[in-house]
Amino acid sequence: MPPHTSPVVRRTTSRLLDQVHRDTVTRSNAQATSGRWRELPRMRPYAEQLAYERGED
User: Fold this and answer.
1) Using an 8 Å Cβ cutoff, are 26 and 34 in contact?
2) N or C: which end of the chain has fewer CB within 10 A?
């Protein structure tokens, strides 16, 4: 016998999974039509970012 799941949890989970699926499909379609990946801003190395946040130079 499967574990009992409340209707609220079931509805919320279903809604979230639908949203994730829609977002993923939209994103993959956008990448396919754009011809290349959207360039992301360069991320700082962790130590450099930590020093920046602490106000160290």
Assistant:
1) no
2) N
